[in-house]
Recover the amino acids of this structure.
């Protein structure tokens, strides 16, 4: 997907905040506008930006939540919205955009998702954290059924995992292993040699929460790598995926 000039993800905590409409703030627009794909979470409403096509999933009742993915018009012909239906058991917002590389015909699915925290006060909320992560895992699994598909999961899943996991890095897929008794991933992760990935995550955030294991199960079962704190350029960032 080398033809895409940048992807950014940002929890805007209500696009119409106390300081005004962020999308009309020139400093905010200056930061996000160099990117062809902009993923925003907790928008609270649909968001539009000149020069971009807007795809939104907004909470139908209650405040907060909501996600918007903005795709620059210049690459729009290579992008399409992927349908994803949730039931009343879910409180997740998600937008999935499929990007087809015009040179390789490889499809990359950009998932922009928001999952409420465990202490969310959504009306009629039951313990739907597991349902949200299960639905997300099922969709990712379906996408990866086609081995040529690529996937980027962005957003705010309200999962704090502390310094874990620390993966043993291999560059051969046949060395990726699973715990036979659980089906969960072991500490082995397949990483291309050329990727600037640190074997040990370096995170300033030492706190974990109830979504930790749900996120690690998701990443482990789908062979996804958490980049926050794992790359050379962001080791000082706090991982709030």
């Amino acid at each position: 997907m080398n033809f895409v000039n940048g992807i950014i993800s940002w929890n805007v905590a209500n696009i119409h905040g106390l300081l005004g409409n962020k999308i009309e703030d020139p400093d905010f627009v200056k930061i996000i506008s160099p990117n062809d794909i902009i993923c925003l979470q907790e928008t609270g409403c649909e968001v539009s930006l000149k020069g971009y096509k807007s795809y939104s999933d907004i909470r139908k009742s209650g405040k907060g939540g909501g996600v918007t993915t903005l795709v620059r018009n210049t690459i729009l012909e290579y992008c399409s919205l992927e349908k994803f239906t949730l039931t009343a058991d879910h409180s997740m917002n998600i937008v999935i955009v499929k990007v087809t590389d015009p040179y390789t015909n490889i499809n990359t699915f950009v998932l922009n998702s928001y999952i409420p925290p465990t202490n969310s006060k959504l009306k009629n909320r039951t313990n739907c954290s597991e349902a949200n992560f299960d639905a997300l895992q099922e969709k990712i699994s379906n996408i990866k059924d086609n081995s040529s598909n690529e996937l980027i999961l962005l957003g705010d899943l309200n999962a704090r995992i502390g310094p874990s996991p620390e993966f043993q890095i291999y560059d051969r897929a046949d060395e990726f292993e699973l715990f036979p008794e659980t089906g969960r991933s072991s500490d082995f992760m397949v990483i291309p040699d050329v990727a600037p990935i640190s074997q040990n995550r370096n995170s300033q955030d030492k706190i974990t929460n109830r979504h930790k294991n749900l996120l690690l199960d998701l990443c482990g079962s789908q062979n996804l790598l958490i980049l926050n704190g794992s790359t050379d350029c962001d080791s000082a960032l706090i991982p709030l995926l």
Summary: The radius of gyration is 18 Å. The chain is about 15% helix and 25% strand.
